[in-house]
Specification:
alpha+beta, 10-stranded antiparallel sheet, 38 strands, 30% strand, Glyco_hydro_36_N, Aldolase_TIM, Alpha-galactosidase, hydrolase
């Protein structure tokens, strides 16, 4: 049993953690403990002790030490003495914003069921999951609050969400509805956030918690390039291999908030969920509102372990089971090779060359529809551009499939161009506030995904192409964020629901397509990594990690991303140089050495490559295919942090489940004169097993490679006399057990 209940005390146990809360005297829920697993007991008096503090309101006169502001709470409201930011807030029909949800009952269910209309976690494999449902009632408004706790014991993960149901006769307004609250007894933690912008997403920033509120979030209608819904808290001495850490992630793709508040008593409150700014939900009699799910996990074994257990959890309990363990194809995308300048002959030439190099899928990117020769036209007109492809998409797809290549197609379903037949027919389908000018972004505007007619139109168009071209893959892009949020389908008092309803429309379209065409692999994209989140991963098992394909920048982007997401979720491509985003020229081997650690692809015109480059690409593809299961399903370790020190070196490693095989890579951005000695300390090997390292005649025990390390010669020893630069170097090592 993962869920233990004694009286009004709830103890959620995973293999290595305990999460304990109880019903307090006032009928509300109080948090007691979250951390390393402890024995279950009938009561935990040391965790429930209270002291009276001066100048602080109390619950009642006969309970002067019951002061909400000083208590760890489970899902707090505002207005009854707890002045910290609350998990929710409701405006009643009389304008009151006070809620008192008291415990009514609970039930324990086997497994974990999916949510309706939202991406969610599941237990389809009988992995010993259990779900605790707590029901609380507000007697004044006759609302019920249902708190859900799904326990996945073997990954040390708990998934939480909340559901508000109006059992009364009057409409109420839900002003704030977060998914998870966790009150910790102290604030001696560092906050790890993953911030940036377009082309430099998810850079690691680690800093100590301070008094007051610190938060990350988005109001862009997407989880955003700028911030990510994954955050972690780590003790100051926690590193990759040792120490306590907590991870939090939201299964949602729209406006979000991750917040930590440190109060006057040095305690920390974590909140995560839909961003309360630009959110509201009118809850009529008999209606319910379900929050997105939030994932939390704890470990005492360092940040690598936190990432690993959450990554394994996603692969088994979030990603579409059809694709979770399925090898992802090595693809070539024509975008950076041709941009809008292509015809069928050019595309076929690239495809034929790609096939000779061992590549498995051809993806046709932007420019195949409407009359699109640049980014100013045709979004929404999902019919083939006859001037470029006079024989149609189906004919091209047949020719691609005839080469024994899979075929994929780019869409940007959520967008519309002013110069399009769709806009001329339905200007009312465009997101714009009445009597306001539309704010352009990338010469395009946003379709109202809160409008069911828009979802129906897009489903019809995309379905027709999937069937005609027998598509194997869809790249779903989203190249701008939302402005002038407004929907013609909503009355004035419900316009605050737009942002969430927009996301529900996106999810509905994804759900309809993935249900009707389960064989199609979807890859999420939003100008690269602008919607790299678990909500998208539920439907699209991999995402384009960033529009920035420069190997040096991708080292940091993929390193930061790895804290919250496994390698199988990261689309990683080799592109031409000079790189389009940075102008940097890096060696082809280095570009591949970074892209190996993800879902490998190429984004260049291989017909323009030299014979030597083609030979190198062919060898890279073969190497990746030989180790694909390891790269996509192995256990990933971060070794050297490119955000630390002078940022000149980064390294990482992936290890097979049995510990007998590994691939490690070390990257050095700039060469240095007269450098110090360098060693690479591996992880995850079997201490008593002997290994051979590629390029090395010696035999090593696993404990030597992990504790004494592998000597790395300085670069001039290997590049002297070579015309290419010694900068931007990468070294890839295979480590294989020998009997």
């Amino acid at each position: 049993m993962s869920i233990l209940v004694k009286e009004h005390q709830f103890h959620l146990q995973t293999d290595h953690t305990s999460y304990i809360f109880h019903v307090m005297e006032n009928g509300e829920l109080g948090q007691l403990y979250y951390g390393q697993r402890i024995h279950d007991q009938a009561a935990f008096p040391e965790l429930t002790v209270r002291e009276e503090h001066g100048a602080i309101p109390a619950w009642r006169l006969d309970h002067p030490d019951f002061q909400p502001e000083t208590l760890k709470q489970e899902f707090a409201s505002l207005g009854k003495g707890d002045y910290r930011d609350p998990a929710f807030q409701i405006t009643g029909p009389d304008g009151s914003r006070i809620s008192e949800f008291r415990y009514r009952d609970h039930q324990i269910l086997p497994g974990k069921q999916r949510l309706d209309d939202l991406p969610s976690t599941f237990d389809d494999s009988d992995d010993d999951a259990q779900t605790l449902i707590i029901t609380l009632v507000d007697a004044v408004t006759d609302l019920t609050l249902t708190l859900s706790y799904a326990v996945f014991p073997h990954q040390d993960v708990i998934v939480r969400s909340a559901k508000f149901t109006n059992r009364g006769q009057s409409t109420v307004m839900l002003d704030r509805a977060l998914s998870l609250q966790l009150d910790l007894p102290d604030a001696n933690y560092d906050l790890l956030q993953f911030s940036g912008s377009w082309a430099r997403e998810r850079h690691l920033l680690r800093q100590p918690l301070r008094s007051g509120i610190q938060s990350v979030g988005s109001l862009r209608g997407a989880s955003s390039h700028q911030q990510n819904p994954f955050i972690a808290l780590a003790r100051p001495d926690t590193n990759e291999d040792h120490g306590a850490a907590l991870g939090f992630n939201l299964v949602y793709s729209g406006n979000f908030l991750d917040q930590v508040e440190v109060d006057a008593f040095g305690t920390a409150r974590i909140l995560t969920g839909i961003n309360p700014t630009e959110f509201g939900w009118q809850l009529a009699a008999g209606q319910s509102f379900q929050t997105p799910e939030a994932v939390m996990s704890y470990t005492s074994a360092g940040l690598n372990q936190l990432s690993q257990q959450m990554g394994v959890f996603y692969q088994h309990h979030l990603v579409n089971p059809r694709f979770a363990q399925q090898p992802r194809p090595v693809l070539i995308n024509n975008w950076e090779g041709t941009y809008f300048d292509f015809d069928e002959d050019k595309l076929m030439a690239i495809a034929r060359e790609a096939k000779q190099l061992g590549i498995e899928m051809f993806v046709l990117d932007d420019g195949w529809f409407g009359h699109r020769d640049d980014d100013t036209t045709s979004l929404g007109d999902w019919d083939v551009y006859a001037a470029k492809l006079p024989n149609g998409i189906a004919h091209l797809a047949d020719r691609i499939h005839g080469l024994d290549l899979q075929f994929g197609l780019w869409f940007e379903p959520e967008m519309i161009s002013i110069d399009s037949d769709l806009y001329r027919a339905h200007p009312d389908w465009t997101v714009v506030a009445p009597q306001r000018e539309m704010t352009p972004g990338r010469n395009q505007f946003v379709l109202d995904m809160a409008n069911p007619a828009v979802v129906d139109y897009l489903y019809g168009k995309i379905s027709k192409l999937i069937q005609a071209a027998h598509l194997d893959y869809i790249k779903w892009d989203m190249n701008r964020n939302i402005t002038e949020s407004f929907s013609d389908t909503l009355p004035a008092e419900r316009q605050v629901e737009f942002a969430h309803r927009y996301m529900l429309g996106v999810y509905q379209l994804y759900a309809r397509l993935t249900t009707a065409y389960p064989h199609v692999l979807f890859e999420s994209c939003a100008s690269g990594g602008g919607r790299f989140d678990l909500g998208m991963m539920y439907y699209a098992p991999q995402a384009w990690t960033s529009d920035d394909t420069d190997a040096v920048e991708r080292l940091r982007i993929q390193y930061g991303t790895s804290y919250g997401y496994p390698l199988a979720m990261m689309g990683a491509h080799v592109s031409a140089v000079p790189n389009d985003q940075t102008g940097r020229i890096t060696p082809l081997d280095t570009r591949a050495a970074v892209a190996y650690f993800g879902d490998l692809g190429y984004e260049l015109d291989v017909t323009q490559c030299t014979a030597a480059e083609k030979a190198a690409i062919k060898a890279q593809v073969a190497f990746y295919q030989a180790h694909r299961e390891l790269f996509q399903q192995g256990t990933f370790y971060r070794l050297d942090n490119p955000f630390a020190g002078d940022g000149n070196v980064g390294s990482w490693q992936v290890v097979s489940g049995d510990g007998r095989h590994a691939v490690a890579a070390r990257y050095q951005i700039l060469n240095q004169p007269n450098p110090a000695y360098h060693r690479l300390y591996l992880r995850g090997l079997l201490a008593n097993q002997r290994y051979r390292v590629s390029g090395d005649d010696h035999v090593y025990f696993g404990d030597e490679l992990m504790n004494a390390g592998l000597f790395i010669p300085h670069l001039l020893a290997t590049t002297q006399g070579v015309e290419a630069s010694a900068d931007f170097s990468a070294r890839v090592f295979t480590i294989d057990a020998i009997d």
